Amino acid sequence: MASRDEKQANEEDKLIVSLPKERGWVSPYLYLFQGFWCPSTHIQGVFNFQKNFDAKDSDVIIASFPKSGTTWLKALTFAIVNHKRFPLENHPLLTSNPHQLVPFVELIFRGDIHELISHLSTMNKPRLFGTHIPFPSLPMSIKESNCKIVYIYRNPFDTFISSWSFFNNIRPKSLPTLTIEEAFEMYCKGIIGFGPSWDHMLGYWKESLATPNKILFLKYEDLREDTNFHVKRIAEFLGCPFTEEEESSGMVENIINLCSFEKMKNLEVNKFGIVGGSIEKKYLFRKAEIGDWVNYFSPSMVEKLSKIIENKLSGSGLSFKI
């Protein structure tokens, strides 16, 4: 007689086969699952996360669309939340990649659920998790709890270039490289992991307006422009503000330096090895520049994506400078 886990796996396999699919960026296919495009390797993790995650009020969820500043925000948030726990000269971020310290739920929930739940119950508070899952597909326990969500979004033009470069670097050799024209057409149709990107942003944006005490909505460009201000803002939002003494001692600036792109990129721990099962850490740190897209976009690409964004975000209050 088939076990419960085997039955569930069979049901999920049947579901995946029934879903609409399109060519993938890293995997052969992306599947339209719960209204967003998802790699088959992540669907089981999303399912298990939705069914088995018991959110605590002290939990912190770092949410983002891929290639929107996720690695940086994970590092900053980990350092902020633990600023009284770890001395900067002997900090976990010096010896561990941010994605190891703040794991993606859609990845960790692909494994043994019973063992994972046991592990989660013994984690120090606050527990920090990352996710690319759109807001509507988060577990009800997160939506009904008082846990905090910090969401970061980025100009879709830069997000596209960063995604195209990153996914071509980590694509299996058995799959052909995506040309920028091919990738752009897919992106404009919303066909990218956890896309469409505009739906992803709007889901968290609208919820942040409804529950500003639960979701902090950050713009990558703003975080880059005034990191000091937003680091203190994140700390206040998460209930761990810096004291006047800590600020005067330079703790905020020290955290910013510890988590800077240059610092993280040059750490030995981020130059070698893999994270997330198969991703080489070195590919997580590309340029972190604002406006790099101008070096790749043709006038017709600019016009097309500008019209899509204007149409999708019209009336929402969200906008981007082109």
From TrEMBL:
Keywords: Transferase. Its EC number is 2.8.2.-. Signal peptide: none annotated. The keyword Transferase applies. Gene3D superfamilies: P-loop containing nucleotide triphosphate hydrolases (3.40.50.300). It comes from the Eukaryota. GO terms for molecular function: sulfotransferase activity. Pfam families: Sulfotransfer_1. InterPro entries: P-loop_NTPase, Sulfotransferase_dom. It is an enzyme of class 2 (transferase). Residues 57-317 form the Sulfotransferase domain. Belongs to the sulfotransferase 1 family. This is Sulfotransferase.
